[in-house]
Design a protein that fits this description.
Layout (H helix, E strand, L loop, with lengths): L7 H22 L3 H4 L2 H21 L3 H9 L9 H11 L11 H70 L3 H8 L7 H15 L1
InterPro entries: Clathrin_L-chain (IPR000996)
Pfam family, one: Clathrin_lg_ch
Keywords: Coated pit, Cytoplasmic vesicle, Membrane
Length: about 210
Amino acid sequence: MADKFPEISSEVQIDQEEGDFLAREKAALGEDATEFQTDQDNEYLNEDKDDELKKFEQKFPDVEEDEQQEQIPTNGSAPNQQQQQEEEEFDKPVFNPPSTESDAVKEWRKRYELEISQRDENDAKKSKETKEAAEKQLDDFYQSYNEKKDESIEAGKKAEEEFLAKRDEFYAEGDVWSRSLGLVKDLKPNQRFKELLEAKAKTTQI
């Protein structure tokens, strides 16, 4: 690879060696060197210098000159009105939308608005039905609650009346001993205690 692509420094050294060779030849010949010099030698040397200068300028152009060439018009004068108009037209958008809608767009817009209207109508109808169903369920709940409440109150009153009737009947029967015996009649107390109550009740009746 090094043989195919020699380093840049080697090329510079070759140019320097060629220059040194010519200088040494001139020094060796002394004043006689001018006798061997021809016009073709100067042209050849100048061509080499011009070619090298052109190559250098092509590889490394002057930035300031390029900017000045871009800023200055080709004819050397300021941009005229025609150029300004062309630039303004170039800046304008290429596509200009039509000022009026086509029949297809109008038809699509009309159909779209109709679909939106129907959708809103259906949503409003569903919302109304849902609201009515919720109100009905709430009314049914309160109605059932009130009915159960009335039934509970009625049952409580009836139980209270039965209790008061039994109480009055209880106090109307015999003396305290017979009532006590009636209280323990359905229970399972001490048999001896029950016998004493029965005997006491008989004694009070005599």
